Fold this protein.
Amino acid sequence: MLFRCIFLRFQTDGFFRRKREQYGDIYITHVLGNPTVRVIGAENVRHILSGEHSRVEALWPRSTRLLLGAGSLSHASGSEHVVRKKALMAAFSFEALSSYVPVISTLTRKYVNKWLASGRIYGFDEFRTLNFAVSCKVMLGVDLDSAECGRLMSVFDTFTSNIFSVPLDAWGFGFRKVTLNFLFCLYKSV
């Protein structure tokens, strides 16, 4: 198996190198049967992204579309995408971000007091937990206790680490882990 992975890696490098030599820094190829634009260099990426929906259109992997659902931004295209993106970006406007400050300050103060009382903390884990609690409060309006926060963070971690997985609902595949974890989470909340 290791030999196959190494062989595939070298074949991929050579394939993209040959395509770049033949077609330049921007070219269309097929990856896993899907037409794909390959872009090399920051200026070229900026050029492509400035014409999103006029020059190119993003196509999310099937697993991402299935997991995020039909109403998600990843399913939208054209004017529908513009409308959904505009609605989503309203949550990140200056006014919206300013309104989050009191909530963030209150939660941060609560966590800092908890950390001071405990004496010793594991910074990365604690800051991740604080960030997740702030996100849940600001975006969903939900206050989480530490046990609930840990459980939901575990589900979220599984989701984010497998969102670009092979969309096979079979044992041992990341897609299956996400769907089972999500169903278990729903079951526990009922």
